[in-house]
Amino acid sequence: MREVRRVLLEADVNFRVVKDFVAHVRERALGAEVLSGLNAGQQVVKIVHDELVAVLGGERRELQLTGKPSVLMLVGLQGSGKTTTAAKLAVRLRKEGRRPLLVAADVYRPAAVDQLVQLGDQIGIEVHTRSVGTPALEVARSGIEVARQRGHDLVLIDTAGRLHVDEPMMDELVRIAGAVTPAETMLVIDAMTGQESVMVAEAFHQRLPVTGLVLTKMDGDARGGAALSIRSVTGLPITFIGTGERTDGMEPFHPDRLAQRILGMGDILSLVERVQETVDQEEAERVAQRMMEARFTLDDFRSQLTQVKKMGPIGQVLSMIPGAGQMAGAAQQAVDEGQLTRVEAIIDSMTPHERRHPEVIKASRRRRIALGSGTSTADVNRLLKQFAEMQKLMRQLGSGRMPRLGGLGDLRGMLDR
Ligand SMILES: Nc1nc2c(ncn2[C@@H]2O[C@H](COP(=O)(O)OP(=O)(O)OP(=O)(O)O)[C@@H](O)[C@H]2O)c(=O)[nH]1
Ligand SMILES: [Mg+2]
User: Fold this and answer.
1) How far are the Cα atoms of 102, 155, 371 from residue 94, in angstroms, in the given order?
2) Is the pTM of this model over 0.70?
3) Which of 104, 158, 352, 391 is most buried as measured by Cβ atoms within 10 A of its Cβ?
4) Which atom of ligand 1 is nearest to the CA of 106?
5) Which helix (H) or strand (E) holds 8?
6) How much distance in Å is there from the Cα of 112 to the middle of ligand 1?
7) Do strands 238-242 and 127-128 pair parallel, antiparallel, or not at all (unpaired)?
8) In Å, how far are 54, 117, 154, 191 from 150, measured between CA atoms?
9) Is the C-beta atom of 108 inside 6 A of ligand 1?
10) pLDDT digits (tens, 9 = 90+) for 75-111
């Protein structure tokens, strides 16, 4: 427990949160049965990991974009990443079939409006602005009008941030929120802010109907302990994380990944790995067996992706196959680069029958799957083609003939865009 406390504090988790968390883990650990293959210490680490995931929010939360148009408002301190996140969300939601309008309600600095206009140009999304001096409330209101007139079904409102939480800013945000009744009010927080962010989040949460958090700059060194603190103190769900300055630098939030990151560099990471390996070993062996027998379906592949996200045993599975070592590395790299979500979305959009018999997926089904997964038919085609090649390779391996690995393309192509 002392070790756990140290790792959490080092990851910048609020000390009160750490205290409660450790007490909770202790309670769960006492009397817990030790799983086969683990020693007591490893068992505790597994409990810590599972509890972290639970506190961080177990399941992912989807955006609830109701209303016509749906309104999403971004709030947060200066420099937290509101404007960038507005553009990232616009790109993402457009992929899901929305017609977003960006609204520049940060009226205090002309540069802020310019920044959004430039981003809008870059991504090809309309930006609503008003002349300098127009009150933010008025900009937001007229933005909704314009959206209605021009057939936008989604309005993303970028607001002004301050260096610190202050009354005039809060008042203004409260008034805007009151006037436009956003379906989602996303609080944008810079992951590098550390401890102070808990107070900031509480202050926003008290005054505004905040529905979710976006944690930006997770591509930096931040361990993400602040996220755990904020989540635990406010109960607000973390919806997305920002992973870069570019407009494609955003990912849905995955509690298990952040849990691992928080445990991260501490000595106990290796313990978590060992625990996961033991737990996943059986599943990995089962899948390897199916691969060799060429019974490997898209369902198996999907289940591997889930496993990979937990701790990466696709490398393990592949390394059991002679000659597939280089695929293992490539697959792991794809995981590290976060390219799995798209492939998962594609497989999720297939019916169970299609997953077992991908040969039935002809043109119209491909279109439906692309639409359902927010990808393109080219993406679906690529996945199917490469999956077919992979199955062929499996069959050859199973029959004892050594295939040319070059002929496989490589697994990364399957995961890459
Ligand atoms: N590395 C990285 N940089 C980010 C991320 N999100 C935003 N930034 C950068 O952080 C800086 C501030 O981002 P903005 O989007 O302008 O922040 P803001 O909240 O709109 O700031 P104000 O309008 O001044 O209140 C910019 O340089 C962004 O490029 C992220 O996820 N990763
Ligand atoms: Mg801004």
Assistant:
1) 12, 12, 12
2) no
3) 158
4) 23
5) helix 2-10
6) 11
7) unpaired
8) 43, 18, 11, 36
9) no
10) 999 999 999 999 999 999 999 999 999 999 999 888 9
